[in-house]
Design brief:
With 474 residues, the chain is of the alpha/beta class. It has 16 helices and 21 strands. It folds into 4 domains: 95 residues, PriA, 3(prime) DNA-binding domain (GIY-YIG endonuclease); 69 residues, no CATH class; 73 residues, Arc Repressor Mutant, subunit A (Orthogonal Bundle), CATH 1.10.10; 193 residues, Rossmann fold, CATH 3.40.50.300. The strands form 5 sheets. A 7-stranded parallel beta sheet has the order 15-16-14-17-20-13-21, with helices on both faces. Strand 18 and strand 19 form a beta hairpin. Helix 1 packs across helix 14, helix 4 packs across helix 6 and helix 10 packs parallel to helix 11. The protein starts with a strand and ends with a helix.
Amino acid sequence: MPSFVEAVVNVPRLTGVFHYHLPPELEGKVGDGHLVVVPFGRQQVQGVVLRLVEAPSVTSTRPVSALLDPAPVLTPAQIALAEELSRRTLAPLAACVTLMLPPGLAQMVDTLYSLTPAGEQADAAQADLTPAQVRLLTLLQRRGPLRGRQIERALPRKRWQASARALQRRGWLRLRPVLPPPSVRPKMERFVTLAAPQPEKENLGRRGGAAESRRRAMLQYMQAQHRPVPVRELYAQTDGQSADLRWLAKAGYIVVFEQQVWRDPLAEVDFVPAEPPRLTADQQTVWQKVRAGLQRSAQGEKVAPFLLYGVTGSGKTEIYLRAVEETLRQGRQAIVLVPEIALTPQTVNRFVARFPGRVGLVHSRLSAGERYDTWRRARAGELSVVVGPRSALFTPFSRLGLIVVDECHDDSYYQSESPPHYHARELAALYARLCGAVCLMGSATPDVVSTYRAARGEWTPLKLPERILAHRSA
């Protein structure tokens, strides 16, 4: 197995890739798409392995310092997509790779500012210091070593960097590059279960006392559940207290442990399982063509993107749902892109009701932890469908078979805020080709670019020209 890797490093405005060698303890553990720590200059930085290489491009290489995640954070198709996106947009490859990671996972190197013994003993009031230097010195004496981003939050708009250099010249301040850990991590929750065997429940505290009553209620509730119970649920259902929990654990009645839990924004969604409605004649014609494309794709054939022109209320969503259903039947996975403004509970519920327990949701209103857990569940194969705006395109599915782009004319699919600048519609078509998947685009008002491509035969045009009667009468 090759002992060298080609990696892209998370350093601002840096282009190109770099070669490193694997130390003995990491050989066989690091491969394509892994998130690692590597040396770069005098600092340690985050990097993503693009591929293993037989021989480096330089005579001397440095070792990979650490593996941050035992599972790859990018699939081979995502690596190919990032490289092609960088080539087309001239954006740094690192920016294209970071685009595909969940918020909080990618971290850039920072500087740790810590006081020397002389700085810790310095008297800010008596020293010949500027007000800005006094603020920085006092902050570090009070809070201890801080990273640059932490100082920035504590002293916003104070131009503290010049003060740091002045304190360093006095010998009061040390600077050291550091790589912060990812700001998102799995959520752990405390659970409790009954111990086996159970001690006698005769002595649960002073008979008739409030503590005995609470402890007995806690044990009875756990016995009725036949499952590990979250501690917060136990408190809510029995009025138990942390002191009661400690007492029961020490007496051997219960076992308290921590367990990872998923942050799922759809966990509390109520839905009614839905059966597919009967298709209209127009829908049936469209569906036969889409299904044939999905079947050819599953057999390894390249399928041109579909452009579904359908007036409002013509039943485009049902075509999407059936395409997803066929994709899942083939053992593959699906991404459904919807403009954020159209990502309503009604839209989400239609997919959740059709595919209960298999759908993940991505959008900007979710917490970083919820998005991280959706990303991890998709990576682990626990989800088969992800619905969301353009960022959902970068879900790390390993068996991607379908990408749906609803309202493909919508301006929100264009990323204009920061590089790389891309249109999710164009990127979806490219990604589908790289994965051997089908791309199904839909719109009531397709733009000139989409219409032109369909007219040239690059995309396959489909039409739903009539509103369904139920929509017309509603």
